[in-house]
Specification:
Length: about 150
C-alpha cells in the first residue's frame, strides 16, 4: 500500500518571485499529497486519515503501539515526518506511541498554515504564508531634527 509522500507533489503550485524567499521547511518539496479528494484544501480529517494509514504501516508487530525502531518507519514514510520526534508523540513518556497518541496529534502543517483556525488549509492561506514579506534586514532609523 502506498502511503503517499506528504511533501513531494501536490495540486497547488506556489508562486515564486525572481529571488524567492527561503522556502518554509514544511513546503520544502511542495504542498502535501494527503489531500484525499485532490481539491487543494488540506483538512484535519484528511491528516488524521493519512496519520492512521502511516501508523498502520509502521506498526509491524500489530500491537497497537510504536516503539522507537518502528517509529523509524514513520520517519521514512513521509518527507515531512523525517524530523519527527518520538518524544513529541509519546505523550505519557512510556517509550511507546499508541495509535491515539499519533493520530490525534495535530498536523504541524495545519498548525503552521491554517490562519483562520477552521482546520482547513486553503491555497490562499498557503500563498499568504509564503509570499515575500518585503525587504529583509535592518531598516534605516529616521533622523531626528538635530542630525
Amino acid at each position: 500500500m502506498a502511503v503517499g509522500l506528504f511533501l513531494t507533489v501536490g495540486p497547488l503550485a506556489l508562486a515564486q518571485s525572481a529571488s524567492p524567499p527561503a522556502q518554509d521547511g514544511l513546503l520544502r518539496s511542495g504542498p502535501p499529497t494527503w489531500d484525499a479528494n485532490r481539491d487543494g484544501i488540506f483538512t484535519c480529517d484528511e491528516w488524521k486519515t493519512f496519520a492512521d494509514r502511516t501508523f498502520t504501516l509502521a506498526d509491524r508487530n500489530r500491537d497497537g503501539k510504536l516503539d522507537k525502531t518502528e517509529f523509524l518507519t514513520v520517519q521514512k514514510a513521509d518527507a515531512a515526518l523525517v524530523d519527527a520526534d518520538f518524544g513529541y508523540f509519546d505523550e505519557n513518556q512510556d517509550g511507546k506511541v499508541t495509535r491515539r497518541e499519533f493520530v490525534d496529534k495535530p498536523s504541524a502543517f495545519i498548525m503552521r498554515f491554517d490562519r483562520n483556525s477552521d482546520c482547513r488549509v486553503t491555497g490562499d492561506e498557503l500563498r499568504a504564508a509564503t509570499a515575500p514579506k518585503g525587504p529583509q534586514g535592518p531598516t534605516e532609523r529616521p533622523r531626528d531634527r538635530f542630525h
